[in-house]
């Protein structure tokens, strides 16, 4: 498996704005920084192929965060090479991060862990009740999930090669809008208006359309 590294801090800062913030830059190669307010605390962090300590420092400085407010650190590897081998004959399955159930573009793994674990548990139950194909059909169903398809590995590769200028143009597509409210025709028009994206028309559209797909899967 290929891994990125994530590192986050919990901050004792009250912020009830409810506004999530994402920071992107080319050196994160498809990773991003985040700032998630949660009422009386804030969760800020970064996911990167590089040094997460250095990149977290970049996030905290960019957002002008007082280091004295840091209450705790938390970090770990994020698998980003798609679904791995998740079934060993009919005797074992791997779910969650262990099986690579992480969206390679958003790097989110909570929904994938719940989804693969819940359905995997039901498949085990059916298997123990005599359904010989239960684990195999669980695996096939998992592979069809849009977040785990080879298309998303492509999207991750494309995203991790974008320059700062292209990333700025990409984020400006949805500034102030929810991505699922952009119709395909509108998306094409907006991409065409931005020279940094027009050069990568196919990849950009693949990526933006993926963002809309995952919304329907709560990813
Ligand atoms: C800093 C950071 C931020 C993240 N933010 C997000 C986010 O905002 N959204 C999102 O969707 N995903 C996020 N993720 C990813 C998400 O946390 C994981 O994808 C998800 O937790 C995977 O769930 P899991 O059950 O597969 O594994 P885990 O949550 O890692 O659970 C595995 C458990 O097994 C235990 N364990 C390990 N070895 C043993 C052993 N030998 N015996 C007994 N127990 C053992 C571990 O202690 C752990 O409790 C983040 C990850 C990190 C590191």
Give a short overview.
By secondary structure, the protein is of the alpha+beta class.
Q: What is the terminal separation in angstroms?
A: 21 Å
Give me the strand/helix succession.
EEEEHEEEHHHHHHH
Cross-sheet strand order for the largest sheet: 2-3-4-1-5
Number of domains: 3
SSE layout and pairing:
Blueprint: E1 3-11, E2 21-23, E3 32-38, E4 41-48, H1 52-62, E5 70-79, E6 87-88, E7 92-93, H2 110-128, H3 134-144, H4 150-160, H5 164-173, H6 184-192, H7 195-198, H8 201-216
Antiparallel strand pairs: 1-4, 1-5, 2-3, 3-4, 6-7
Flavin-adenine dinucleotide (FAD) binds next to β1, β5 and α2.
What would you note in describing this structure?
The chain has 219 residues and is α+β, with helices and mostly antiparallel strands. The chain folds into 3 domains: 3-79, D-Amino Acid Oxidase, Chain A, domain 2 (2-Layer Sandwich), CATH 3.30.9.10; 87-148, no CATH class; 161-216. The chain is built from 8 helices and 7 strands. It has helices at residues 52-62, 110-128, 134-144, 150-160, 164-173, 184-192, 195-198, 201-216; strands at 3-11, 21-23, 32-38, 41-48, 70-79, 87-88, 92-93. The strands form 2 sheets. A 5-stranded antiparallel β-sheet has the order 2-3-4-1-5, with helices on one face. Strand 2 and strand 3 (32-38) form a beta hairpin. Helix 6 (184-192) packs antiparallel against helix 8. The radius of gyration is 19 Å and the shape is globular. The relative contact order is 0.12. The model has no long low-confidence stretch (mean pLDDT 90). Bound molecules: flavin-adenine dinucleotide. Residues 6-8, 45, 74-76, 78, 96-98, 102, 108-111, 113 line the site of flavin-adenine dinucleotide.
């Amino acid at each position: 498996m290929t891994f990125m590294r994530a590192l986050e801090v919990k901050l004792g800062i009250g912020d009830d704005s409810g506004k999530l913030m994402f920071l992107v830059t080319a050196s994160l190669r498809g990773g991003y920084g985040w700032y998630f307010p949660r009422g009386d605390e804030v969760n800020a962090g970064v996911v990167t192929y590089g040094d997460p300590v250095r990149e977290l420092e970049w996030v905290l400085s960019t957002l002008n965060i007082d280091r004295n407010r840091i209450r705790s650190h938390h970090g770990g590897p994020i698998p980003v090479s798609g679904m791995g081998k998740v079934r060993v004959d009919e005797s074992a399955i791997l779910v969650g991060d262990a099986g690579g159930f992480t969206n390679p573009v958003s790097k989110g793994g909570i929904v994938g862990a719940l989804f693969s674990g819940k359905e995997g548990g039901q498949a085990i139950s059916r298997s123990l009740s005599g359904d010989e194909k239960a684990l195999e059909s669980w695996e096939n169903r998992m592979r069809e999930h849009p977040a785990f398809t080879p298309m998303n590995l492509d999207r991750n590769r494309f995203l991790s090669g974008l320059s700062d200028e292209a990333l700025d143009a990409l984020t400006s597509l949805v500034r102030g809008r929810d991505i699922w409210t952009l119709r395909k025709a509108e998306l094409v028009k907006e991409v065409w208006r931005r020279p940094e994206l027009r050069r990568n028309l196919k990849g950009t559209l693949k990526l933006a359309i993926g963002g809309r797909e995952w919304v329907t899967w709560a990813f």
